[in-house]
Design goal:
The complex is a heterodimer of chains A (190) and B (102). Chain A has 190 residues and is an all-alpha fold. Chain A has a domain of 82 residues: NADH-ubiquinone/plastoquinone oxidoreductase chain 6, subunit NuoJ (Four Helix Bundle (Hemerythrin (Met), subunit A)). Chain A is 67% helix and 0% strand. The longest helix of chain A has 23 residues. Chain A is extended. Chain A starts with a helix and ends in a 6-residue tail after the last helix. With 102 residues, chain B is mostly helical. Chain B has one domain: Helix Hairpins, CATH 1.10.287.3510. Chain B has three helices and no strands. Chain B is elongated. The mean pLDDT of chain B is 85. Classes of the chains: A mainly alpha (190), B mainly alpha (102).
């Protein structure tokens, strides 16, 4: 009963937030709607008993990814309205129809899932975090380490790409110096 | 109606994925295109968690963790590239990126 109420409430909220994200013309509204949608998605994980995944969702998405986007948006001109793509209507309609057809096919396929056996069944008497730890550090240890290396590579790549010419601080310079620098090299300060 | 099953979650996941796909096809600003890809990744995560719950198997949750890790690194590298592009060209519209030469 309560599960159903929570599911429908959060489903409605998530769909509404993500719809705002893809339709609004203001980048800032899109960012805040996306952050709200991410938090609502974590509610599904808590309903499904995946507590650790829900906590990770809140920490990583609304904590790290959204903060990164917010910092990134400070570099871009986000106050102006976003121009939309005026693409071929037939392509969009065709691809949407194809996607809808694919969904129908997926639902209509005879389910072979009846004979699926759980490889890593949920253990009794321990919490979700403990189970996740047991499976992650036994069976999925190598993917875990590879993911750690990949995150390190991504961090270094982000620093190298975004950190160029950041040794000059605009707040510590006088207005004349900034004007001079703009004249010398316009693209640095764009 | 009142009993929430696996199909409910899968239908929700499909709806969210279509919203993300709509955004990917519709948007021209690359930052908002990134938002749409995040929506698609999250919809897949819901499906993974739901299947993991209804089949009593933890593999789905493990996949969701790795999807989250990949999404985080994608954002870091993508935003870095986007900042470099914006410093060079002054906009992040997709139409201005049609040539391979920087």
């Amino acid at each position: 009963m309560f599960e159903a109420i929570a599911f429908y409430l959060f489903a409605f909220l998530t769909i509404a937030m993500f719809y705002i994200t893809v339709t609004t013309k203001q980048a800032l509204y899109a960012l805040t709607a996306l952050a709200a949608g991410m938090i609502f998605i974590s509610a599904f994980f808590f309903i499904l008993g995946a507590d650790f995944l829900g906590a990770i969702q809140i920490i990583v998405y609304t904590g790290a990814v959204m903060a990164l986007y917010a910092f990134g948006m400070m570099f871009f001109d986000t106050t102006r309205e976003v121009k939309e793509k005026k693409g071929n209507k037939f392509i969009i309609v065709g691809l949407s129809s194809l996607a809808a057809l694919l969904v129908v096919v997926i639902f209509a396929t005879p389910m072979v899932s009846e004979n699926i056996v759980a490889l890593y069944p949920v253990a009794e008497g321990v919490g979700n975090t403990q189970e996740v730890g047991i499976v992650l550090f036994t069976k999925y240890l190598i993917p875990f380490e590879v993911a750690a290396v990949m995150l390190l590579v991504a961090m270094i790549a982000g620093i190298v790409l975004a950190g160029k010419k950041m040794d000059i601080s605009l707040t510590l310079m006088s207005a004349d110096e900034i004007e001079d620098m703009k004249k010398q090299n316009k693209k640095v300060l764009s | 109606m009142m009993e929430i099953g696996l199909n409910h979650y899968l239908v929700l996941s499909v709806i969210l994925f279509s919203i993300g796909l709509m955004g990917v096809m519709k948007r021209k600003n690359l930052l908002l295109l990134f938002f749409a890809t995040e929506i698609m990744l999250n919809s897949v995560n819901i499906a993974f968690a739901a299947i993991s719950h209804y089949y009593g198997d933890l593999t789905g949750q493990m996949f969701a963790f790795f999807v989250i890790a990949i999404a985080a690194s994608e954002v870091a590298v993508g935003l870095g590239l986007l900042i470099v592009w914006f410093k060079r060209h002054g906009n992040i519209d997709l139409d201005s990126m049609s040539s391979m030469r920087g």
